Amino acid sequence: MSDRAFQYSLRYGSAKNPVAEVIPDKTWPGMWRVRTPDRSLSDMANLSRAKDAALAIAERGPPAKDAKLLRWEMAPLGEALGGSLVSQNAKGAPTHVTAPTNDTTKIYSKEHDERQRN
Q: Which one has a higher pLDDT value, 104 or 115?
């Protein structure tokens, strides 16, 4: 199985939810993105740089984390935070994010934002 079939989850201590995830870009092979708990995506980077960025984000917080308690886990793509919540357009940029909050889950999209402005 290729690396693209997996994602890397950065966990703090025995926490159930990851502090950050490194997921493969859907368009560009060999490129990865950092996904934070608020579902935002970073720019593309190679795997080493993406993992380094995830560590830097986690250590800075909020709240600041003890680097000794951070650990990486490798899981099949989509399992760590409950599925892929971000789709990407042809250029690899995120087009929408579904944030699982409660019954009022919303889908934010570029098209939706443009319709709201008009």
A: 115
